[in-house]
């Protein structure tokens, strides 16, 4: 076998406990940031963006348990793009969907 069959296990083997803990801390801090953004955002689209980023992050973390998929560039680009969009500010239109009330 040329690699671990799990991203998390591969990360632990290749970077040791310190690298693994740093990666896990980064994922947790991203999740906390997205949860806070979802809770504190005043616009519907900002809340949806934060939720979408959180779903992408959790999905990638869970998918990485039994699979070795993050080294596949398309998966990594998708996750990175989803997180960048999720943490970005509201749209130029103010983030309000026409016909939707701000709450």
Poorly predicted parts:
none
Q: Radius of gyration from the CA trace? A: 16 Å
Q: Any idea what the shape is? A: elongated
Q: Major β-sheet, in short?
A: none
**What are the secondary-structure elements, in order, as H or E?**
HHH
How many beta-strand runs? 0
Number of helices: 3
**Strand-residue proportion:** under 5%
Approximate helicity band: 55-70%
| SS-derived structural category | mainly alpha
| Separation, N- and C-terminal Cα atoms | 53 Å
Mean pLDDT: 81
What's the quick description here?
The protein has 103 residues and is mostly helical.
Describe the protein.
- The protein has 103 residues and is mostly helical.
- The chain is built from three helices and no strands.
- It has helices at residues 7-40, 44-63, 73-87.
- Helix 1 runs antiparallel to helix 2 and helix 2 (44-63) runs antiparallel to helix 3 (73-87).
- The chain starts with 6 loop residues before the first helix and ends in a 16-residue tail after the last helix.
Describe the structure using short key phrases.
single chain, 103 residues, mainly alpha, elongated
Strand and helix map with partners:
Elements (H helix, E strand, L loop, with lengths): L6 H34 L3 H20 L9 H15 L16
Helix pairs in contact: 1-2, 2-3
